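Researcher: Good morning. I'm working through a list of sequences from a screen, and I'd like to move beyond sequence-only analysis. For each chain I'm collecting a predicted structure so we can compare shapes side by side. This is the next one on the list. No need for commentary yet; just the structure.
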Amino acid sequence: MNKILLLSIILTLSISLFAQDESTLVKIGDNAPEFTYDAGNGVRKSLSDLKGKVVFINFFATWCPPCRKELPQLQKEIFDVYKDNEDFVLLIFGREQNWKTIDEFKEDNNFTMPFYPDLNRKIFSKFATQSIPRNFIIDKEGKIAYSAIGYTEEEFEKLKGALAKELK
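Model: Good morning. Structure tokens for this chain:
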């Protein structure tokens, strides 16, 4: 009986990991897909404008419980630490969220990080097909250096280490 249970757990985890890989459209070492985004006040920016910088991209939604756990850590342990680093840019995209929802969420949670809407998943769909939160670190050459799905304290520590490595 214990063998059957163990095999079931292993099979479930294997399927879960495989599904996560299948939902990620970009892999480490790939060129990051080009995109433009609404930076507010009628300004449009593109990822290519940030070449030569380390770009940290987070996809979230205001209704997502793991996102709500991760964002305060992102504020405290990444944005507050690196916000004055000229080589660092943080882009947080609200998947299927508009400016009004994002601005209210940002204010309600006392976040000072930059948030942007991705109302129709136009940006998200270049990186993945499902699952948030998602994080991507893009190196100074514009390549995917790190990616993560979901939020755990252990994964967040790995994410911080990968970012520190890219900013050396």
